[in-house]
Amino acid sequence: MDLEAPKIKSAEEFFYIQRNYQKQYRDNNRFIVICGDTGCTARNSKAILGNLDRCLKEKDLSETVGTRFTGCLGLCESGPLVIVYPEEILYHRVIPDDMLEIVEETVLEGRIIDRLIYRDPSSGEKYAYARDLPFYKKQVRNLLGGNWKTDPTKIEDYIALGGYEALVKAVTEMSPGEVVQEVKEARLRGRGGAGFDAGLKWEECFKASGRKFIICNADEGDPGAFMDRSLLEGNPHAVLEGLIIGAYATGAREGVVYIRSEYPTAVEKIKTAINRAEELGLVGDDILGSGFGVQIYLSIGAGAFVCGETSALIASVDGRIGEPVQKPPRLVQHGYLDRPTVVNNVETLANVPHIIKQGAENYRATGTEASSGTKIFSLVGKVNNTGLVEVPLGMTLREIIFEIGGGIKEGKAFKAVQTGGPSGGCLPASYLDLPTDFESLTEVGSLMGSGGMIVMDEDTCMVDLAGYFLKFLADESCGCCFTCREGINRLLELVQNISCGRGSLDQLDLLKELAEVVKDSTLCGLGQTAPNPVLSTIKYFEDEYRAHILQNKCPAGVCRALITFEIIESYCNGCGLCKKNCPSDAITGEQKQTHYIDKDQCDKCGICFSTCRNEAILKQ
Amino acid sequence: MINLTMDGLKISVEPGATLLDVARFYGANIPTLCYDEALSPYGACRLCLVEIGEPGKSRLVSSCTYPAREKLNVRTNTVRVMQTRKMIIELYLATCPSSKTIQDLASKYGVTGVRFSPKNEECILCGLCVRMCEEQMQAKAIGFVDRGVNRRISTAFDRKSEQCRLCGACMYICPVCQARCQGPSEESTLCNACLNLSPPCLENNDHTLCYMDPCAACELKKKTNQ
Amino acid sequence: MKKNTVLGLEVPCGPNGVSVITVLQAIQGYYGYLPEEALEKAARELKVPLIDFYSVATFYKNFRLAPQGRREVVTCTGTACHVRGSEKITEEISRTLGVDIGSTTEDGEYSLKCVNCVGACALAPLVIVDGRYYGQMTSLKVRRLFSDNPTKTEQTVSSGLSE
To answer: What CA–CA distance (Å, rounded) separates A557 from A461?
Structure first.
């Protein structure tokens, strides 16, 4: 007969178990952390772990040196990352074969391996210790900090580091009303996009009666944003703890984690986390002997961006097509199965344990008056330090992009930053000193959104980019509202006309007019914000649109219809590389003779441009 | 009772009424393409927009789906409503110029030009037929397929449905294929009020959306041709 | 977590039992795609109109109504990948393998699909072949990846750092 694992039945039991876990955790003072996030795993970090284990075994160090395969460490650009504790020496771009050297040199001798330490791409300065890196120095890693120290599959690690203490405090010391009050006072705003006060939502649900639901929205659909994925992969228990506290506060006895299927690792991690918490009795009936119980279900998405919209998400949890519905009636009154439902984003929930543990007042010390706490941004695009950054709300874009992000790749000029996902806007250099909080970003025509921050340089064409987002949204719209389905399609048609050089100034005016109509007349957030990329690029980069229309030129050299490739005779040494690689056989020329491009044949793929070693290809 | 203001008039209505119900009760003229009293509202055509909220902070909502709420300030024919509606009609015209209903709407609202390239779609995806089939006929033979720009209405796997009883209610309620305007060709998408009284489907069944197999109208036509 | 059986397959339950989506996911998990007959049977078993299954199966991108190729090629077209040139990568794959986006090669070997963001933006532009991630792709790397001798190139390409 299987003996069921003993469930934790009281706060005393919890703290007793915690002390045991802490002893186990501290056993190994020396340990090595390897980033196991999707980005680093894609670069072979699993093989690094395997090699490390083997090396440790060979050197007979398996008992004394711990290893930990963690969630995202932040600096994805330089992955795979390896950190050696307790010194916190950070090695980047490690390959499996480096591990022997790391064990021999650093672990045994305490020496730093120079070639593996991080070098700042702009200043060239070297940094050996993680805490000194400019990338980490300016961040406040309240949420992501946990990723460094915990193995996401081990609830023991999380509890040893103070995890689930907030749950114990909430359930045993506070009434649901007090928890709601605390979150309200913390002014926790929804991190999923709209920035709605989470405490108010909870309060409304708390006041409703009968069967209630709480749903964690992990359908992170914004392209270029992966904060929620990293939280779920790196510290799933933090999100789960927030969800359980939320259930306690709102009176929901059933919770659902709705997660997108494109994140297979995150799905596994949260599944394991729920099971482990269930085994310990932190999920289920009668948690900690308090009489309060909650069931957590996992609902896996099936691939639809629109399901990030809460009412569409609820339809999807119910197994229907993800069509948003009119609000009011609001979801906190008529949500899932027509019952009061609270939907919170992953990052919002991950903040909750911090609020309960340190109190609303301490929590509010970070961030601005109206936007308290920290926000995780995924800093991507043409920026040196691609990765996840967590900063107090209100930090300026310049600080994030240039001080933490290390500036633009290859020393090129900054052109724009796009925040808020496909529904956000593009902000030019003149807004770099704008503080990143909910109000400031909305005011200038962009959005906080879920925290995607895509940096663009001089090589990005804003007309092309607007077209990209429209194409994305035309694809992802549910298709219910005529103005969204057909409106976005027509916006796309107009933008494509312009990028093909077939545009006119009348069309530009029509584009603006239609964009306003789509914004005004659509039912859900997707349609209402869909014109933002168009409107903001026209607002800040109208010159570029005009160049396409009036001069038939694409200043960034992206729009294919408007560029040509030519070989500069004096630079061409006739190596034939371009000819060999041209997919449309448009290049002619004998070996060691100047080559030529047949402009009619050329389909402007740009392969010759990127393959030429002599910079002999001119793009105009 | 719920108290609200509509076009400056203070009124009180039963709970559960939508803004469209209220507006139509008081005689306000609001066009719709996807609404039918006998079916649940869907809010797809976006023509029934009204402006709610105080000036400066107002927004547009579809009146057929928006419930009447206490102290709501509703305005049904502001400049913003009218301009938006005109643009939507223009979009409809460009998409589906052969519909008499849409051509009539255009003349009624003074849409005198179409600035988009014309398409010749046969369906505006108002979803009336889908709801008719499900709610009134209790059949659920047809539904929405695919999404976004590719959305269309069809039966499962695009073949004859076991649930379909050939009742024809889907065609009866369709605002587009019921009365097709023969006026404009693809080059000019606007004819502004013709007097086209052709019966449904009989004249022009090639381009109508017909899920019936065999279709009563087609059979009739075959007979008359013989 | 509770489970229920439909068509003899285990389907996880939500608060409201099984749903059309979870049933479809279970069917696809078993067959690799959604065979028409299976949907018909499931619709009958659950007493749900078939059109509901078909609507959901065509609405969500993860569901496939036709069998896939033996190898699945996925290109990420998220914003970060787009600004680093993913469009050209997709085009190159499409050209190299002779397959359109969303379809399968005639010999049933490769299926090409685009997804909107897999959240590995540091590797942009990114291609995933059978669950293996290939970062910082270029047109040339694509050709090497799908050349006759893939094993050698896989290593150089997958490290993503050499070039």
So the answer is: 7
Co-location of A206 and A280 in the same domain: yes
Task: Choose among B102, B124, B81: nearest CA to B180.
Answer: B102
Both tokens assigned to A55 = 């090396």
Cβ <8 Å between B140 and C51: yes
Contacts of A4 (CB under 8 A, 6+ apart): none
Q: How far apart are CA B94 and CA A549, in angstroms?
A: 23
Domain that holds residue A421: 374-457
* Residue position matching structure tokens 């009061």: A340
Round to whole Å and give the CA distance between A516 and A528.
9
> In three state form, how does the secondary structure of A110-131 look?
CCCCHHHEEECCCCCCEECEHH
pLDDT of residue C152: 45
In this structure, are A225 and A268 located in the same domain? Answer: yes
**Rounded alpha-carbon distances, angstroms, from residue B36 to A5, B42, B98:** 59, 10, 22
Strands C71-76 and C9-12: unpaired
Q: What is the dihedral angle through the alpha carbons of C62, C68, C71, C74, rounded to the nearest 10 degrees?
A: -30
Q: Which long-range contacts (CB under 8 A, 24 or more apart) does A92-99 make?
A: A92/A116, A92/A117, A92/A118, A93/C161, A94/A48, A95/A44, A95/A48, A95/C159, A95/C161, A96/A44, A96/A47, A96/A48, A96/A50, A96/A51, A97/A51, A98/A48, A99/A48, A99/A51, A99/A52, A99/A55
For the record, the structure tokens of A518 come out as 């789509």
The reply to whether A323 and A280 lie within a common domain is yes
Count of alpha carbons within 13 angstroms of residue A317, beta-carbon side: 32
- Give residues with Cβ within 8 angstroms of A345, minimum separation 6: A190, A191, A192, A193, A216, A217, A228, A450
Nearest CA in chain C to A469: C79
Q: How many domains does chain A have?
A: 5
Return d(Cα A74, Cα B226) in angstroms, integer.
77
Contact yes or no for A482 and B147 at CB 8 A: no
| C71-159, CATH topology level | Glutaredoxin (3.40.30)
| A521 chain-B contacts, CB cut-off 8 A | 46, 49, 60, 84, 88
| Beta carbons of A514 and A523 less than 8 angstroms apart | no
In sequence order, which ranges of B96-145 are alpha helices (DSSP H)?
100-108, 128-131
| Angle made by CA atoms A223, A229, A231, in degrees to the nearest 5 | 140
Phi and psi dihedrals of A134, rounded to 5?
-60, -30
Between chains, do A489 and B149 touch, taking CB under 8 Å as contact? yes
Residue A516's closest CA among C136, C97, B59, B214? B59
Per-residue pLDDT reduced to its tens digit, C15-74? 989 999 999 999 999 999 999 999 999 999 999 999 999 999 999 999 999 998 999 999
* β partners of residue C111: C72, C104
User: What pLDDT band is residue A120 in, cutting at 50, 70 and 90?
Assistant: confident
Check C133 against A303: CB less than 8 A apart.
Answer: no
Same domain assignment for residues A475 and A578: no
C62, C132, C139 ranked by CB distance to A261: nearest: C62
Residue B69 reports pLDDT greater than 90: yes
Integer Cα distance of A159 and A61 in angstroms: 26
A310 and A214 in a single domain? The answer is yes
Secondary structure of A268-321 in HEC code, one letter for each residue: HHHHHHHHHHHHHCCCECCHHHCCCCEEEEEEECCCCHHHHCHHHHHHHHCCCC
Residue B205 has pLDDT above 50, yes or no: no
Q: What is the mean pLDDT of residues A265-285?
A: 94
Q: Which domains does chain B have, with CATH numbers?
A: 2-77 (3.10.20.740), 83-218 (3.30.70.20)
Question: In the complex, which subunits touch B with 3 or more CB pairs below 8 angstroms?
Answer: A, C
Treating both helix axes as pointing N-terminal to C-terminal, what angle do A227-234 and A264-280 enclose, rounded to 10 degrees? 40
Q: Are residues A483 and A447 in the same domain?
A: no
d(CA A26, CA A139): 26
Do A533 and A585 reside in the same domain of the chain?
A: no
